[in-house]
Specification:
Elements (H helix, E strand, L loop, with lengths): L5 H6 L7 E4 L3 E5 L7 E7 L14 H17 L7 E4 L15 E5 L13
Antiparallel strand pairs: 1-2, 2-3, 3-5, 4-5
The structure holds guanosine-5'-monophosphate and zinc ion.
Length: 119
Amino acid sequence: MARDCIFCRIIAGEAPADVVYRDDAVIAFKDIMPRAPVHILVVPLEHIASVNDLAEKHAQTVWRMFRVAQVVAEKQGIKSTGYRLVVNNGPDSGQVVFHLHMHLLGGAPLGPFGAYRRI
Ligand code: 5GP
Ligand code: ZN
């Protein structure tokens, strides 16, 4: 646990969150600033700062994150209507919380992916 990490504090029960799923490897809770009708963060219990810090030993954890995304999408009723999974990594992506997490977005047509300047 990283004491200065908001997601570690949520996992430890020291900060509030609207938790929709939890098991021995992964937690999922509603994003505090939703950008879609369904906007849930799928977060490993282990503090891994970003995709850059993933290694082969995390293979099972990464699979479990995708599995939880499937389960939560079904629970939220968006399994068949579709959803987008986003993992930001580093400054240009806009990553603000340096504890690995997957955004699960859905519940309405999301429009084309990506907001970036043409170069
Ligand atoms: P990032 O840009 O790092 O991929 O996204 C971090 C996300 O975490 C943002 O969408 C932000 O709204 C969300 N977030 C930040 N702090 C909190 C919090 O304390 N609780 C919850 N539920 N979400 C948070
Ligand atoms: Zn953390």
